[in-house]
Amino acid sequence: MIQRLCVLGVGLIGGSLALALKRSGAVSEVIGYEKDPLYRAKALSLGIIDRAEVCLAEALRGAEVVVLAVPLGGMEGLFQQMAPHLKPEMVVTDVGSVKGSVVTAARAELGTRIVDFVPGHPIAGTEKSGPEAAFSDLFCLHKVILTPLPENRPGAVETVRRMWHQAGAEVVEISSAYHDQVLAGVSHLPHVLAFVLVDLLAKVGEPQDTLQFAAGGFRDFSRIASSDPTVWRDICLANREPLLALLDHFEAELHTVGEALRHGDGGKLAEIFARAKAARDTHYNA
Amino acid sequence: MIQRLCVLGVGLIGGSLALALKRSGAVSEVIGYEKDPLYRAKALSLGIIDRAEVCLAEALRGAEVVVLAVPLGGMEGLFQQMAPHLKPEMVVTDVGSVKGSVVTAARAELGTRIVDFVPGHPIAGTEKSGPEAAFSDLFCLHKVILTPLPENRPGAVETVRRMWHQAGAEVVEISSAYHDQVLAGVSHLPHVLAFVLVDLLAKVGEPQDTLQFAAGGFRDFSRIASSDPTVWRDICLANREPLLALLDHFEAELHTVGEALRHGDGGKLAEIFARAKAARDTHYNA
User: Fold this and answer.
1) Which residues does the UniProt record annotate as the domain Prephenate/arogenate dehydrogenase (chains A, B) (predicted)?
2) CA gap B198, B204 in Å, rounded
3) Residues B213-240: what's their mean pLDDT?
4) Most buried of the four, A89, B99, B156, B215, by CB within 10 Å?
5) How distant is the Cα of A87 from the closest Cα of chain B, in angstroms?
């Protein structure tokens, strides 16, 4: 049982975590630190948080666990501001979609309190944002990745692991570097592709003329292009190196497909398509 | 009421059309022409067709309406084989995902019977294939695009339009050229991108290691990569020119995003992402 949880940022993820822990009786009191007055009011009225704070020192006071649930661009500044107010054994974690950049910022700002900072990333979300999008089931049947640091106090890792279990998630531990490489492939690059495609279609023709002929495949493919642009700008910038490496690789593969198409090489196309189908079917229908 | 419908190819689309028309009482008898013995047996046992034929002349005999529902690569050969057996006022239509190539093949093979060939394309489907994937609701709330030819007998167009209405679809008419350009954007290019991404990820790491960290966004984005490789090879080849033009455009846009990322230009990224989100939200949430 967490006596007092402090959530920094009460949007979709922070809000859903608070709701999930409340529902399972794993937390007594949730304090929300949130700059947006509309988010604060909404989070209070929806019962996501018990108290809203605009002063960070006040929000952190007496918290057992602190969760940074702000866009990646806000992490470094928060670490800097919170550092003087962290008490021994006050466990800190985050929900950032990129881990390397968050770890670098935490190491730079938290000093010896790094022992109680456990990096995390719930693999869950929707294309919606804000406290009104939060729901307590968001993490059920989903993975939460923790990338514990060599400096971490084992008890801190255990506290964060237990918190996510109680929110309904499955917890796995991998390194920050591996996390960032894998997520570039299964999340960051797909978002970029979806954003670029939808933007291209909107440029080529009137979207209402073109999209009326789209079927379910396109609706699903493009769903992630409705994601928050600021959040995704931050993610791309924060995971720049792994994402660029994969993007280069993707561009080369796409060029290969274009050349096969240009030369009418149906065998090459079918080979690539069949390999992709096999890989996907193996995972999703196994 | 269609007294006798002949479906050439009893897979997902041909099978679903037969089921939809039977359910609405719009057809008395459905004859299936199908080369795959497993498909034939399945279509018969599921009540999709009333009679299976392996001889094309026999399948066409006495049919009021003939629907070509085979992969695009099989269309030209079928037009050639069926031409001698077409009777006056026997209405022929197809369900091909590309219209220009089908129209060219039909004009080359059907002679004066082109007056009764009405090109069509239902904007519906799933990533599954075969008669066991067919269901009578497939076309409900979906559009069917007809691209009537200047040569068409008005009664033929009306027969095909009525058939699709009775299958539950909304019928729209546009030109073949416009169809192929629009579908390259909302269907063909997205499929290529999904295939290429999944294939790339399977090459970079073990799919089971990588995909376990994928969330709902990736599952939805990549669903179309589970589509039939042969069908999609045919579609890409048949719509080569519009697809290549758009692919070139996409590659240039993706390169722009890569450069913005390389130079840390968050403003450029956010601008593209926000424009895409606005275009998609306008269509899907309007």
Assistant:
1) 3-286
2) 10
3) 93
4) B99
5) 33
pLDDT digits 0-9 by tens, B166-192:
999 999 999 999 999 999 999 999 999
Closest CA to B95 of B16, B189, B187: B16
Encode pLDDT of B197-221 as tens digits: 999 999 887 777 888 899 888 999 9
Q: Look at residue A263 and tell me whether its pLDDT is greater than 90.
A: yes
Could you report the per-residue pLDDT of B106-152, keeping only the tens digit for each? 999 999 999 999 999 999 877 788 999 999 999 998 999 999 999 99
> How far is it, in rounded angstroms, from Cα A210 to Cα B187?
11
Find the closest chain A residue to B249 by CA distance.
A200
> Which residue among B198, B219, B261 sits closest to A243, beta carbon to beta carbon?
B261
Cβ contact (<8 Å) for A247 and B258?
A: yes
Q: β-strands A143-146, A120-122: how paired?
A: antiparallel
**Given this model, what pLDDT does residue B286 score?**
56
- Min Cα distance A110 → chain B (Å) is 26
Taking CA atoms, A209 is separated from A213, B152, B189, B217, B244, in Å, by 8, 26, 17, 25, 21
CB contact under 8 A, B187 and A218: yes
Residue A165 is predicted with a pLDDT of 98
Q: Which residues in chain B are contacts of A212 at CB distance < 8 A?
A: 143, 283
All domains of chain B in start order, with CATH:
2-174 (3.40.50.720), 178-284 (1.10.3660.10)
Mean pLDDT of chain B: 95
- Tell me: the pLDDT tens digits for B18-39? 999 999 999 999 999 999 999 9
Q: Which residues of A touch B192 (CB under 8 A)?
A: 254, 257
Q: What is the DSSP letter of B90?
A: -
Q: What percentage of residues in chain B have a pLDDT greater than 70?
A: 99
> What would the pLDDT profile of A54-82 be if each residue is shown by its tens digit?
999 999 999 999 999 999 999 999 999 99
Give the chain A residue nearest B236 (alpha carbons).
A261
Distance between CA A139 and CA A122 in Å, rounded? Answer: 7
Is the pLDDT at A272 greater than 80, yes or no? Answer: yes
For residue B42 the two structure tokens come to: 């399945």
Compute the Cα dihedral for B160, B163, B167, B168 and give only its sign: positive
| CA A109 from centre of chain | 22
Q: In the structure encoding, which two tokens stand for residue B235, read together?
A: 């579609």
Hey, which residues does A91 pair with through a beta bridge?
A: A65
Q: What angle do CA A270, A271, A272 make, to 5 degrees?
A: 95
Q: What is the ipTM of this complex?
A: 0.89
Q: Residue A230: how many CB atoms within 10 A of its CB?
A: 18
User: Helices marked H in A30-94 — which ranges?
Assistant: 37-45, 56-60, 75-82
CB contact under 8 A, A261 and B210: no
Sign of CA dihedral B40, A283, B139, B149: negative
Phi then psi for A117, rounded to 5 degrees? -100, 115
Cα A82 to the center of its chain, rounded Å: 21
Element of type H or E holding A58: helix A56-60
Contact (CB, 8 A) for B150 and B128? no
Q: Return d(Cα B208, Cα B196) in angstroms, integer.
A: 17
